Structure to design on (382 residues):
């Protein structure tokens, strides 16, 4: 049995990733904003919801598959965009894309990704979505959108919850904020992870591949990173989304929606779907858990708009809870980063297999996709 096969749940994959990665990278993946209360809230929101089973139902042929805009995926779970994945493992973005193809789920390449749109579209022509960060220069945004269109990408995910940098104190402590300057203790810790370090040294610094065309020819990874930092984050408004709607022919999805009014405005500006998300607790520590907002947002946009969610999904049962509360589809970020760090493409496939097995067991136990019950009232509040 390989060490990946011994990972029976996402937490075990997380522990394996933590052994392989130096603190600098593990903290970058794990970390949240400020005091990381939002991170905890994302998890406790799932714990607070219970699922009500119906028994005496024939579950021998229950299907996990889900259709989204005419395409049927193996299950209602996709791989969320995660920037700088190449720090976890060289080539991570394409490994995730290939795992998505094999598992028949969507993969969203990050606007801060370390593979290019064109490379991604080649390995995952049907399953790859692209996440856009609107940049300071409109010509750059428009060029990226045209490149995605020309590469055959059909889903554009516009992230709206990063108007400014966020205060991730683990990254600050490690010196992993621009201008990147790892502390002595961070370097010492990296030396204690020789397998990661040897790969990192031999394969070189990952680049923001999608930004290379806008940097001077022959620019180094650092110069491309400087260019990226000069363009992102940038304040955007609904007018920018309406402009994107005019030039983007495919599905337009807005990621980072929490307020039902914003969900309505996104639809008015031409969005086909929204991802209810607090960026995995990485941008606003006081933000509510997306799970708790699903019923109101579903009601605000009506049945014809695709409502998706992420933030805190770690179990198949979490996917079922989100669907029972109004989501059409769910994404997870860190679980796939743990997988790809722990075992490359095979690790990402392992994460998908874990989710799929848990999802199947939960749906079978429920006798279908189930009904979610609100938090149980504690004895003292009765
Ligand atoms: C390491 C890391 C990098 C991320 N980078 C991006 C990004 O570039 N663009 C984006 O829209 N979201 C980004 N996210 C947020 C994810 O897309 C997703 O919203 C979040 O991870 C969901 O929470 P979860 O990790 O608890 O599943 C990132 C998340 C992580 C953990």
């Amino acid at each position: 049995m390989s060490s990946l096969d011994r990972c029976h749940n996402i937490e075990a994959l997380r522990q394996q990733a933590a052994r392989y990665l130096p603190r600098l990278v593990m903290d970058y993946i794990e970390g949240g904003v400020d005091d990381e209360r939002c991170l905890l809230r994302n998890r406790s929101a799932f714990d607070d919801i219970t699922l009500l089973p119906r028994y005496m139902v024939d579950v021998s042929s229950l299907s996990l598959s889900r259709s989204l805009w005419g395409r049927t995926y193996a299950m209602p779970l996709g791989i969320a965009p995660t920037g700088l994945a190449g720090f976890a493992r060289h080539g991570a973005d394409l490994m995730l894309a290939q795992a998505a193809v094999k598992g028949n789920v969507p993969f969203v390449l990050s606007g801060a990704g370390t593979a290019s749109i064109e490379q991604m579209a080649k390995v995952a022509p049907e399953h790859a979505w692209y996440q856009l960060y609107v940049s300071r220069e409109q010509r750059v945004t428009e060029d990226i959108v045209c490149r995605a269109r020309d590469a055959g990408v059909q889903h554009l995910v516009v992230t709206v919850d990063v108007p400014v940098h966020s205060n991730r104190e683990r990254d600050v402590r490690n010196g992993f904020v621009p201008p990147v300057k790892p502390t002595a203790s961070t370097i010492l810790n990296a030396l204690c992870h020789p397998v990661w370090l040897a790969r990192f040294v031999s394969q070189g610094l990952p680049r923001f591949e999608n930004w290379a065309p806008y940097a001077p020819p022959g620019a180094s990874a650092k110069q491309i990173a400087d260019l990226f930092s000069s363009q992102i984050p940038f304040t955007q408004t609904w007018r920018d989304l309406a402009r994107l709607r005019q030039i983007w022919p495919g599905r337009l999805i807005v990621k980072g929606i929490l307020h039902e009014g914003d969900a309505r405005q996104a639809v008015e500006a031409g969005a086909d779907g929204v991802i209810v998300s607090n960026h995995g607790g990485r941008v606003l520590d006081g933000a509510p858990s997306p799970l708790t907002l699903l019923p109101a947002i579903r009601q605000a946009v009506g049945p014809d708009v695709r409502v998706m969610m992420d933030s805190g999904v770690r179990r198949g049962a979490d996917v079922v809870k989100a669907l029972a509360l109004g989501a059409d589809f769910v994404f997870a970020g860190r679980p796939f980063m743990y997988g790809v760090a722990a075992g490359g493409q095979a690790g990402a496939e392992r994460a998908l297999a874990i989710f799929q097995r848990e999802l199947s067991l939960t749906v079978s136990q429920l006798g279908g996709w189930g009904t979610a019950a609100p938090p149980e009232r504690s004895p003292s509040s009765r």
